[in-house]
Amino acid sequence: xxxxxxxxxxxxxxxxxxxxxxxxxxxxxxxxxxxxxxxxxxxxxxxxxxxxxxxxxxxxxxxxxxxxxxxxxxxxxxxxxxxxxxxxxxxxxxxxxxxxxxxxxxxxxxxxxxxxxxxxxxxxxxxxxxxxxxxxxxxxxxxxxxxxxxxxxxxxxxxxxxxxxxxxxxxxxxxxxxxxxxxxxxxxxxxxxxxxxxx
Length: 199
Ligand code: IMP
Prior knowledge:
- About 35% of the residues lie in helices and about 25% in strands.
- It contains five helices and seven strands.
- It has a seven-stranded mixed β-sheet.
- Helix 1 crosses helix 5.
- The longest helix has 21 residues.
- The protein starts with a strand and ends with a helix.
- Bound molecules: inosinic acid.
């Protein structure tokens, strides 16, 4: 099955492609099918934003489309930056400035608990919709650690591994990450959906 990946974030593309290709899905990019959709993420939940993106690309491409909306939720910041993770602190900031802002917000704060959340939505041209959610609990470090990854990876520690996401290989991160977990749920849903269609 051909599926359009409704994302322009190169890091997410690599992570999602790696996992989806194991499902026998032929992942194509918007640019591969001549589509360039700019969706305003006006939803207040990860689920709503993932749906907005997947639906818009499915309609434009006429093919099943899959989107992920994700972010970091920090307990002591009232669940923020949450759905605003990509634009936390304003549009002009880079990844490092954004995670510095989170560290500043937690200055003097003992509660470092946080979680990454990923919501995946897949929309089919016939109107069917599949949704999957994955979470990865962790702690916000006191200073950045590690060179790999993107976004808030250097300040997100997964206690069981004693590593931040930025200190993990791609395979290590995919095995436990919010996106990896959501894609695992999605894998099961897609298998059942396709089985139900053809069985
Ligand atoms: P989205 O493209 O609207 O889903 O924005 C998600 C934002 O959340 C990204 O720009 C990152 O700042 C952050 N984010 C989501 N997933 C990850 C991750 O795996 N590592 C680090 N930051 C992430």
